Amino acid sequence: MMVDLALFGDEKYDAKAWLNAACRDRLPDDPVDRYLTDLEMKLQLMAETITADLDEKSTGALLRVPRASRDVLRVRDDAITLRATVSAILAKLKQADGTSAESVAALARVDVVKQRMEAAHETLQDAAGLAKLSASVEEVFASGDLPRAAETLANMRRCLSVVGEVPEFANVKRQLEVLEDRLEAMVQPKLAEALSQRKVDSTQGLRDILITIGRYSSLEQHYTRVRVRPLRRLWEEFESGKGGLPIGKSATGVKLQTLAGPNSVSVSFAEWLPKFYDEVLVQLEQELKWCTVAFPDDYKLLVPRLLVETMSAISSSFGARIEAATEETTAEVRASGGAGENSGVEKGRSSRLGLLIALHNMTGEFAKNVQHLLSGFETPEVARVLKAVYVPYEGYKRRYGELERAQLLSEIASMDIRGAVPRGVGQRGVELSETVGRIEASIPQLILVLEAAVERCLSFTGGSEAEAFLRTLDEVMLHYLASLMEMLKSMRPLCGVDRGNHDASKRDSGPETGGTRKDSSNVGSSNVDLIPEEEEWAIVQGALHFLTAADVLTARASVFEASLRSVLTRLAGRLQLSTFFPHHDQSGVGSTGAEAATTGGPGALDMTVLRLGDLPDNGRRLMSLLEQAQDPRFHTLPQTAQRIAAFSEAVNELVYEVLISKVRLKLADVARLPVWCAEEEDNAFDLPNFSAYPLAYVTSIGEYLFTLPQQLEPVAAGAAGMGGSAMGGDGAEESVDEAQFLATEWMFKVAEGATALYIEQIRGIQALNERGAQQLAADIEYLCNVLSALSMTTPPVLSTFHACVAAPREKLIEMAKQEGTHYDIPSLRLVCKMRHVPIE
């Protein structure tokens, strides 16, 4: 068997385990004792072999130790000798260093002298050469060799820079400037011709001449001056009538008229502008291809400058044409009386601001194509080009709030939000319903108008004028709500709740209406009672419908304001102004500059950020606004929210006045009824001498309160329909519950108001005899039963009045003096005073 000796050197060696493993390797036929004997013999032989090897190697090692010791001693002696030698060398070096320092310093001074002598030699050569060049430069110019002349002038300038401010060469400096101007004047016509005819070789040669004499700026000026002419001619074609568009209608709906001449037609500026932009792009693309060949090192500067100069040259004319086009559109709208084929939002497309935005969108498409064309150019150069393209619109953007305000007011004025017109009896309910219908119909129209305004703001200003826009929306909403408040005021006479008109109608009710009847069963009646009952309920339904309109306005305004906050949030994420303005400097593009405007990927610049970079104050205000918009409590239209709340409160007040008016009329003269002090009549049968039934005034109030839930059902159904359509599914069930709660709330509110008015009339009763007290008790009990039927709790004051007027006179003193009574003490004392019961 083979024995692995490494196993015996392992730290985890276990003799038993090794022996068991060895036994498992034996053949099955071998006896165990024989196998173990052989194994023991093999291990013993291996141990003897190892011992012999160890002895042999140990003997050899002992023999080598003396030799190694002698080698170590010899190496130590050599090291000591080497150290002594190195020390001696170091001492000699230190001694030599002190003596050579003076020599090195002397050599350095000699080298400086040599350099100065060489510089003086070169200067003398340059001075001699400058004098020679100055004398021969006229011959070079006379030869007409412009490259040689440029090289001569360049050498003269180099020599002049070496010579410095030497008085003898002051005239040479002036001569050099004159010669450079002279050479530039000679190059100009040839360069203009080469640029006009697109001669690559000639242009490159002339360009090298100008660069040689340091007149690169002249190259830029001549290039832009020559190449801008074709682009200017394209712009001037609008006045010359060469637009070449067919007769028809423009984008603004303006009919195109034929010019003088059979083949020429005049087109609107809005129709012609896209053609101009297309032609500019074609020429710009050709110019870029040619410049790439002619100016391989300069085309990234020359082409953007060409477009900037072109747009700057036509900027004032561009603004004048925009103004003329918008004025023409405004005049046409006025001539048509503000009515066209379309209305509402559609009509805004042919408005002044609509045309302005249409032109701006055309310019935006042109700017995108320019960015794509200049995609490989430096970002600051592209940024300057875009600014030049949008310059004609800058004045309008700064006045955007005013323009949008005029647009919105015009669109709101086109809505039918007329106030109510007083009508005769029988027609008031119809007029009221129509007025409320006009209000409700105007709300979705208003929201559409406002949403269109948001789109206009983002399209035209990119959101940079969001602050002025929100201020304008707030003002326009206040104007709209003021109109609604006027409509609300005009509805009060129709509803019969205008105090002044109501009093006047009572004064004028004389013989025609028969006056006020003194029958106790018709207490509180007036001329209003003569209105048919059907019209009364129509007025009530119209007023209740007004609640739905107010709720719709509140809900839609809230949703619109939430959408405004969402727009501001998206705007903040897109612009990222916080990373731009902290690094802003005064160069027009901040230190992060156009890079901060690169929000749409490589080379895609955001014009809004570029514009705000030139208006840092506007940018910081916008950034503050966008940060505030992150707060859910922030109101984008703060005044509107307050005014809508005031309008809803006014609507609730009107509805309450309408619902309580009949109760108010019935209770108007209850305190002065003669029944409270009527004399008692003698009867022979000792029967009660008071009415066993409540009087007509209180029964009519009870009947009115009982029928009120039926009147509130349409309101509940309308509210449920509005909420269900908005939420759907489970939301519809929730809206039904909320509508029922609203109807119940209004029923309780009217019942509580009726109870309060009744208590006020009871307190106004001056005196009560026994008969009057019993009658009043019957009336109060009836009203308490009505309240109980409506699931309402009777107020403690009314319960006190009922208990006090129903009790005998002699018991009142006991009730007043009872300690810990649950009665309302002031009311109890008042009843005692009415019934002339002394309690002191």
From TrEMBL:
Superkingdom of source: Eukaryota
Predominant place of localization: Golgi
Protein name stated in the entry: Conserved oligomeric Golgi complex subunit 7
Stretches for region Disordered: 499-527
Annotated InterPro entries: COG7 (IPR019335)
Signal peptide residue numbers: none
Keywords: Golgi apparatus, Membrane, Protein transport, Transport
GO cellular component: Golgi membrane; Golgi transport complex
Subcellular location(s) per record: Golgi apparatus membrane
Family recorded in the similarity comment: Belongs to the COG7 family.
Biased composition (Basic and acidic residues): 499-520
Membrane topology of this protein: Peripheral membrane protein
Gene Ontology annotations of biological process type: Golgi organization; intracellular protein transport; meristem structural organization; protein retention in Golgi apparatus; retrograde vesicle-mediated transport, Golgi to endoplasmic reticulum; shoot system morphogenesis; unidimensional cell growth
PANTHER family in the cross-refs: CONSERVED OLIGOMERIC GOLGI COMPLEX COMPONENT 7 (PTHR21443), CONSERVED OLIGOMERIC GOLGI COMPLEX SUBUNIT 7 (PTHR21443:SF0)
